Amino acid sequence: MRSPETILTKFSDPAASATSWGETEAALEKAELFWISTVRTDGRPHVTPVVAVWVDEAIWFATGKAEQKVANMRANPQVVMTTGCNEWDGGLDVVVEGEAVQETEDDALGRVTGAFAARWDGRWKWDARDGAFQAADGDGEAIVFRVTPARVWAHSKGDSFGETRHQF
After folding, report:
1. What is the pLDDT of residues 34-68, one digit of tens each?
2. DSSP H helix total and E strand total for the chain
3. pLDDT at res. 40
4. How would DSSP label each residue in 43-95?
5. Which are the contacts of 78, defined by CB distance < 8 A and separation ≥ 6?
6. Cβ(79)–Cβ(100) below 8 Å
7. Is there a contact between 123 and 111 (Cβ–Cβ < 8 Å)?
8. How distant is the alpha carbon of residue 28 from its chain centre?
9. β pairing state of 126-129 and 58-63
10. Domain 5-103+144-167, what fold?
11. pTM above threshold 0.85
């Protein structure tokens, strides 16, 4: 398991304390939705929600080959993935910076299909085959990307606002 350097940044409330990596990782594990930010080849940003899981210290998501985010990641694999809540008075927002890498190894994909099925009580059913996710009902294929964090920001909100940086 990788352990990041963790610091509370200068933009935090004086009463705030750093969010531990364990608390940040727990937020990544329980997240149901992430927003992925990519950059088009002409420099314009592209942001879209994705269903994802935290497995093997990375965020994994599946998508269609013809999606805009795939074209963007082929040209520039650096992405930002965010999750959290839209509340001001509490909660934790998490921002993950990293490189999106397509995974084609069936054993790794098999571990991730199990995580998808467990996370959503079987609502996302995939088979790992031929380097991609195959729909369990035979109706479709999705390619899979993993984002291993290079830097993670945890923004705690409530009585004291804190910005914690986890640097790998």
Report:
1. 999 999 999 999 999 999 999 999 999 999 999 99
2. 3, 11
3. 97
4. S-EEEEEE-EEEETTEEEEEE-TT-HHHHHHHH--EEEEEE--S-SSSEEEEE
5. 39, 97, 98, 99, 100
6. yes
7. no
8. 7
9. unpaired
10. Pnp Oxidase; Chain A (2.30.110)
11. yes
